[in-house]
């Protein structure tokens, strides 16, 4: 791949160094991307002073601008989130809210700065809801300019009402493991295509 980079945002509620199944699955996506020559970085969002809001910088020591710089330098976003009450985590929702600001940020050709960037998901939880979380996150990510590849999510959910975490359950090479490899392959393929063939200039502004 042509100098492609990935950024994984872990949206666990737990600050470091607490173990996180979301981070584990996100790192497994990064590892699968690394096999394809794509370097990646993991950021646990809750470790930073990210403020609630819908601007690129909420001021007063807001940690989002630094994360945003990494995001804008990346070609692939891996959003890793646990399922809480059948929903993406509150941290994941905060990230999506902060990305709303990108609707006002464009390049010299009128394109969103997120155009040409690929987004994939890694979801873990102890209840059904992975498909619902994926639907919510992908709708928001597509709205703010990211491109979603085919089969763009990998997930693991434990038994209903259970207490077993993904980190304790161990890798599932025949199911989650295989899906994770597919997500990485499709994300890498699409990111390379969009790097080589960017979206056209904003047709509404240039009609």
TrEMBL record:
Pfam family, one: FMN_red
Superkingdom per UniProt: Bacteria
UniProt-recorded Gene Ontology molecular function terms: oxidoreductase activity
Domain NADPH-dependent FMN reductase-like: 7-151
Name by which UniProt lists this protein: Flavodoxin
């Amino acid at each position: 791949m042509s100098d492609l980079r990935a950024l994984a945002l872990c949206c666990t509620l737990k600050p470091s160094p607490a173990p996180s199944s979301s981070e584990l699955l996100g790192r497994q996506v990064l590892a699968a991307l690394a096999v394809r020559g794509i370097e990646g970085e993991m950021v646990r969002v809750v470790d930073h002073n990210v403020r609630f809001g819908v601007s690129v910088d909420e001021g007063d020591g807001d940690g989002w601008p630094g994360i945003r710089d990494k995001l804008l330098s990346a070609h692939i976003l891996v959003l890793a989130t646990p399922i809480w009450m059948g929903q993406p985590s509150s941290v994941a929702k905060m990230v999506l809210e902060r990305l709303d600001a990108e609707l006002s940020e464009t390049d010299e050709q009128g394109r969103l700065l997120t155009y040409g960037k690929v987004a994939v998901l890694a979801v873990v939880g102890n209840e059904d809801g992975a498909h619902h979380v994926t639907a919510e996150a992908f709708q928001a990510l597509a709205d703010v300019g990211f491109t979603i590849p085919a089969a763009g999510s990998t997930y693991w959910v434990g038994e209903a009402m259970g207490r077993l975490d993904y980190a304790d359950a161990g890798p599932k090479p025949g199911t989650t493991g295989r899906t994770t490899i597919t997500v990485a392959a499709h994300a890498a393929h699409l990111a390379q295509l969009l790097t080589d063939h960017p979206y056209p200039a904003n047709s509404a502004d240039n009609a």
